[in-house]
What we know:
Blueprint: H1 15-66, E1 70-75, E2 80-85, E3 89-95, E4 101-102, E5 110-113, E6 123-129, E7 132-139, E8 144-149
Antiparallel strand pairs: 1-2, 1-5, 2-3, 4-6, 6-7, 7-8
Amino acid sequence: xxxxxxxxxxxxxxxxxxxxxxxxxxxxxxxxxxxxxxxxxxxxxxxxxxxxxxxxxxxxxxxxxxxxxxxxxxxxxxxxxxxxxxxxxxxxxxxxxxxxxxxxxxxxxxxxxxxxxxxxxxxxxxxxxxxxxxxxxxxxxxxxxxxxxx
Length: 150
């Protein structure tokens, strides 16, 4: 009488094979996480600068539409900024990402607009980011913003 062992042969992975795959996956994850964190931080800083420039244009448009003085002032040691309309009414306060802040030694400490939309004082604002300083230059009365990476 012959016994067939093919029927009873078990299929699957051994514990050693599973541990090997698990260790390779965990090593890859440990290598990828720091790059992902850095990329997320850099993207949030880029977005914050774009939002700040958009806020400048928004306040300029508000000045023209309402024929009123508007101002953007930095708060909390440069970690946030507020938008002000006439009679010092605060429209909004926006926080920068934790890795970014306004540098107080910038030539401008606030951005203010005349009711005709012209910027009251030209100059530059410097932001300290994880990749270095970023300077925004305000020129030519109309709120033109030029970004310089330093």
